[in-house]
């Protein structure tokens, strides 16, 4: 597993990957800026106007609880862009990865597995759908973990472990679905759940590093291509000559 991570890291800055890397980083920067600002605006609205609306909805008996929640949200709004950028990065990378998954996998397969049958590109709609589902799940976990971050710091650990599970699952399935039907890919992930979760910890650690985490889709996809190959065992099929010269 460590060898697979090292190979993925070393290939990130290789000439064939650079174009994908810059496009991925640029798109991630745009998305994270838009979403972080949107989150800050939403929290600010709730802190100023949402308290009255929520009390009217729930009744005066909830006044004290709503005041506490409003206080938490006020703090979160002030830190929205900073913490939003950190916590939403797994969601952003999930969306970005869905656009570049096959480009990255093709390069890894050609360089490291030239004698094996190449994978088949996922339908664009399917790749996007997988990315959106993971992004939405990540945002839900962010919202659950945020109060715990503010009070006890436990939210960081919760979010880290959840990100490892979510990102490990997504990237492995994207790599596996290049060779298997979706249900078979998901079954393989379940059968190797502990290994894939451990691999997800590498991705969660990578996505936790500011600035560097903009390249998460490249690292994570390359890493999981290697992991899928290793869990699949030997694949003796030879590739077509046209694939060798691309």
Looking at the structure, what is the overall shape?
A: elongated
Rg from alpha-carbon coordinates: 20 Å
How do the helices and strands follow one another from N- to C-terminus?
HHHHHHHHHHH
Q: Span from first to last CA?
A: 28 Å
Uncertain regions: pLDDT < 50 for 5+ in a row? 236-246
Strand content: under 5%
- Coarse structural class: mainly alpha
Indicate the mean pLDDT.
76
Main sheet properties: none
**Amount of helix:** over 70%
Number of strands: 0
Q: Overview of this structure, please?
A:
The chain is mainly α. It contains 11 helices and no strands. Mean pLDDT is 76; it is low at 236-246.
Which helices and strands appear, and what pairs or packs with what?
Blueprint: H1 2-12, H2 15-58, H3 63-78, H4 80-87, H5 89-112, H6 124-151, H7 154-176, H8 182-191, H9 193-207, H10 216-232, H11 241-244
Short characterization:
This protein is an all-alpha fold and 246 residues long. 81% of the residues lie in helices and 0% in strands.
Question: Which terms would index this structure?
Answer:
about 250 residues; mainly alpha
């Amino acid at each position: 597993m460590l060898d697979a991570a090292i190979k993925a890291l070393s290939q990130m800055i290789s000439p064939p990957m650079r174009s994908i890397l810059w496009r991925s980083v640029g798109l991630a920067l745009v998305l994270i800026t838009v979403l972080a600002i949107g989150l800050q605006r939403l929290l600010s609205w709730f802190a100023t106007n949402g308290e009255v609306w929520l009390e009217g909805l729930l009744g005066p008996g909830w006044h004290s609880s709503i005041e506490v929640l409003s206080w938490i949200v006020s703090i979160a709004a002030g830190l929205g862009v900073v913490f939003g950028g950190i916590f939403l990065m797994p969601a952003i990378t999930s969306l970005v990865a869905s656009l570049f998954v096959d480009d990255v996998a093709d390069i890894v397969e050609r360089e490291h597995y030239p004698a094996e049958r190449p994978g088949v590109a996922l339908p664009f709609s399917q790749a996007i759908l997988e990315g959106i589902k993971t992004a939405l799940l990540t945002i839900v976990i962010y919202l659950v973990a945020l109060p715990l971050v503010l009070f006890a710091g436990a939210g960081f650990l919760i979010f880290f472990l959840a990100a490892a599970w979510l990102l490990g699952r997504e990237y492995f399935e994207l790599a596996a679905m290049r060779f298997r039907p979706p249900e078979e890919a998901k079954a393989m992930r379940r059968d190797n759940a502990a290994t894939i979760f451990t691999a997800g910890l590498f991705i969660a650690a990578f996505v936790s590093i500011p600035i560097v985490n903009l390249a998460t889709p490249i690292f994570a996809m390359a890493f999981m291509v290697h992991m899928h190959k290793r869990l699949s065992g030997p694949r003796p099929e030879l590739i077509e000559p046209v694939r060798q010269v691309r």
